[in-house]
Amino acid sequence: MRASLIQLSVSDTESPDERRARASALVRGRTGDDLVVLPELWPLGGFAYGAWSSGAEPLDGPTAEAMSAAARAAGVWLHAGSIVERDPDGPMYNTSLLFDPAGELRRTYRKIHRFGFDSGEAVAMGAGQEIVTAPTEHGTLGLATCYDLRFPELFRALLDAGAEILTIPAAWPARRAAHWTLLARARALEEQAYVLACNTAGTHGGVEQAGRSLVVDPWGEVVAEAGTGEEVLTVEIDPAAVAKARADFPVLRDRLLGIPAPVRR
Description:
Blueprint: E1 2-7, H1 16-28, E2 35-37, H2 49-55, H3 62-74, E3 77-86, E4 92-99, E5 105-110, H4 121-124, E6 133-136, E7 139-143, H5 152-160, E8 165-169, H6 177-191, E9 194-198, E10 203-204, E11 207-208, E12 214-216, E13 222-225, E14 231-236, H7 240-248
Helix pairs in contact: 1-3
């Protein structure tokens, strides 16, 4: 399976329409890939709080339209990162979009853990309520976003829902870059799953982004890691390695909290 993480540079000087066109071109260029992943909130910026309300869009808005066409043109599964979703019947949400190779919107995931404590996303966005996975011919994807990385219970729930490849778009700041790498490796090792963690580059809302998108294997080893600028990180991974790791080192069988203990005869 060939996967690409498009570590898009996001700045305050480029309009959402310009960035959508640029992201679309990058996705269309990934013909031959199986899965492509974009970062969190790239159309507006993860820290560009002032732009969210005016730039929020529905699930069939301009970003979804552009990404659907790009996925179809490239013939890839596309995790299009996330948008500021305007729900006509509720608050805004930080919502991820997953398209199949025909360009059909197959899954959405509203981010559960909102960053900012008493400001920013934590007060501007509603919290998602659903654990979201997506079966594909390459394995089952588990969807999470950025700050979710700090909450291992979410990833245990994704594991129990069948996730084998964890896709994590982010807008993670440079000042906590070490946490980004550490947590991505921990989630892969805990769940014995691949982690595909795609971050933004650049600076927006006055916050420098860490970049350093990475792919981690089910043993917690970094397969590939990007630098700090805009970059397309492409890797070959073996989805069968997930089942092999879980069979060779069956630590998940010994879980005692949250699920019944296994019966050994």
